[in-house]
Structure formats: C-alpha cells, structure tokens
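Researcher: Next sequence.
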Amino acid sequence: MKKSKFKPRKAGEILVTDKKLGRERAAGQAWQGENLIEIDPRQSHKDYMDTLIHESLHIFFPDWSEYKVKTTAKKITAVLWDENYRKVNL
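Model: Next structure:
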C-alpha cells in the first residue's frame, strides 16, 4: 500500500492512501473514526480526483446522503477539472 506524503498531525486532518480495492468492489473508502481515505489507484486521474473528493465529503459531512455526496463530488470535480487541476507525481 502506497501512502501519501500527507501525515495527520491534528484531529481534523485526513490520511489518504492508495490501495487496490477490487475485493471491496469500491473506488474508495472513508474511515471516519480514523480520518483515513483509501483510494484504488487503478482509476483515471479525473475519476481519482472525484473519488478523493467523494470520500472527503463522507468524512466532513457524515450525515449527508450518498446521493448528496455523489452529486456534490461530481460538481466539484467538474469545476476543478475544467480549471485544469490534475494529479502530478513529483
């Protein structure tokens, strides 16, 4: 499992890790109590961004319905993608 360089330091921060989630049949998972997001890296860059936003919304707004999380993530992804935000491996 590849971990991002971001390490949680305070209660509000989130650790994002790449993990193949084929068995779970999911593009991503959010673990609210642990402030952990796991994302399957075998996605396009745009889908990866959408999954990251989607799972972040689950952590920040645990009472939101899946429909609200999904539609909000799609809208945010579209705005960021149209503004040329991309994942870059440095």
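Model: Residues 66-82 form the longest helix (17 residues). The chain has a mean pLDDT of 87.
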